[in-house]
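Q: Given only this backbone (214 positions), what sequence would you predict?
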């Protein structure tokens, strides 16, 4: 088996060898997995396809073996889905944490600016040196503060757009990879099916040749 084999492929390989030690797992495992992975095929057609393949491995209890293969496939797919959902939830938690930390940082910056302004006003009031020019400077400071807050808001919006764009690109890439995988699986399934047929023809010819010698 290849190093990149899925958990189900590993289980399937052991299962087939337990049923028939002479089973060619490189051919049968890939072919069976490709059949089960086809989402557009009705379950009855999958069972029929599996039955013809399992018939090359065992001569009895073929229906029971097919049912077990399908059941195990569904179990592994459920585990895979749950794992993916957990990873998505973890990503959502991390994004929420980042946004919360950013909001806290902005809040602290605004609070610090207010304290500095209050201290300045207290000093000016203490020495009674508040002039019209200094009074006019306060709206300017308030304007700078508003502009700083506006810059923070723009930055947050840019970051949000970047995250959404990255998620969209990730989904598009995943979709393209899924389509490529389906096409590859389809070609592999056809090639593997032909190998099985060629193998059956070869065995048939050898049997006929042996009977003629007798």
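A: Predicted residues:
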């Amino acid at each position: 088996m290849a190093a990149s084999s899925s958990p189900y492929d590993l289980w399937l390989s052991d299962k087939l060898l337990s049923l028939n030690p002479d089973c060619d797992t490189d051919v049968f495992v890939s072919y069976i997995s490709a059949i089960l992975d086809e989402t557009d095929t009705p379950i009855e057609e999958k069972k029929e396809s599996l039955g013809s393949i399992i018939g090359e491995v065992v001569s009895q209890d073929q229906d029971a073996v097919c049912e077990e293969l399908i059941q195990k496939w569904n179990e592994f797919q459920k585990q895979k889905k749950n794992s993916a959902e957990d990873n998505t939830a973890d990503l959502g938690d991390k994004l929420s944490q980042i946004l919360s930390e950013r909001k806290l940082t902005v809040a602290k910056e605004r609070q610090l600016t207010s304290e500095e302004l209050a201290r300045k006003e207290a000093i000016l009031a203490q020495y009674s040196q508040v002039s019209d020019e200094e009074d006019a400077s306060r709206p300017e400071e308030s304007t700078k503060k508003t502009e700083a807050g506006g810059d923070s808001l723009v930055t947050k919006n840019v970051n949000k757009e970047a995250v959404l764009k990255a998620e969209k690109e990730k989904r598009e890439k995943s979709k393209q990879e899924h389509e490529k995988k389906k096409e590859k699986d389809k070609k592999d399934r056809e090639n593997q099916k032909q190998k099985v047929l060629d193998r059956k023809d070869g065995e048939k010819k050898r049997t006929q040749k042996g009977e003629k010698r007798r």
